[in-house]
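Lab meeting, item 3. Inverse folding demo.
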């Protein structure tokens, strides 16, 4: 059974979607460990309820991003993680994690990358920017993580209509539903080695 490690910072609804997919037999994988940078992240409670090992690696405890990242990589190795999933993880990591897990780190972003990505584009900031832009569609993206923030080969995307009466909150809720659908599916595709990378494009292996 392939072992995945999930990095979290907040509520963990994407973690819950992954847990549900595994328990519903839609995703054949084992969550070996859930690592949070915040001790009070509700995602930790979700993991505990399902008997999943958890580790808190508080970024405040490390003088540099590199040492913070080294602590995370050390725990991923300790739990024999094969695929790393950033699920609402809000800290920038040192590139050593990419060297440790080349093309084996997935991130979920609540917009249609490459639009509305990059510095400062997280949480409600994304949806506010989408609404202000006048775009009629938004959605979510699962991509492989490279050295640049929110830029990496896109594995899956899902689209939602931006309605005239949408607020940042209502749009976030619609996008989150898409996230919960595409993240487990993207994990399945990568674990089954179905993804062929061609620059920033990915293609499905037959
Ligand atoms: C989600 O919108 C995700 O796209 C972003 O963090 C938000 C919260 O995720 N990266 P979760 O509920 O903690 O999984």
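The presenter then showed the designed sequence:
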């Amino acid at each position: 059974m392939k072992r995945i490690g999930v990095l979290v910072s907040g509520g963990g609804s994407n973690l819950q979607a992954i847990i549900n997919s595994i328990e519903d037999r839609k995703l054949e994988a084992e969550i070996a460990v859930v690592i949070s940078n915040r001790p009070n992240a509700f995602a930790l409670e979700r993991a505990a309820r399902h008997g999943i090992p958890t580790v808190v690696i508080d970024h405040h405890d490390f003088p540099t991003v590199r040492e913070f990242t080294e602590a995370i990589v050390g725990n991923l190795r300790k739990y024999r993680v094969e695929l790393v999933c950033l699920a609402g993880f809000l800290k920038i990591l040192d590139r050593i994690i990419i060297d440790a897990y080349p093309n084996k780190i997935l991130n979920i972003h609540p917009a249609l990358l490459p639009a509305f990505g990059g510095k400062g584009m997280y949480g409600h900031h994304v949806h506010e920017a989408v609404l202000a832009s006048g775009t009629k569609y938004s959605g979510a993206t699962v991509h492989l993580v490279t050295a640049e923030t929110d830029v990496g080969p896109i594995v899956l995307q899902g689209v939602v209509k931006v309605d005239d009466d949408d607020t940042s909150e209502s749009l976030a809720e619609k996008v989150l539903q898409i996230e919960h659908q595409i993240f487990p599916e993207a994990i399945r595709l990568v674990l089954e080695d179905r993804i062929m990378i061609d620059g920033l494009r990915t293609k499905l292996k037959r």
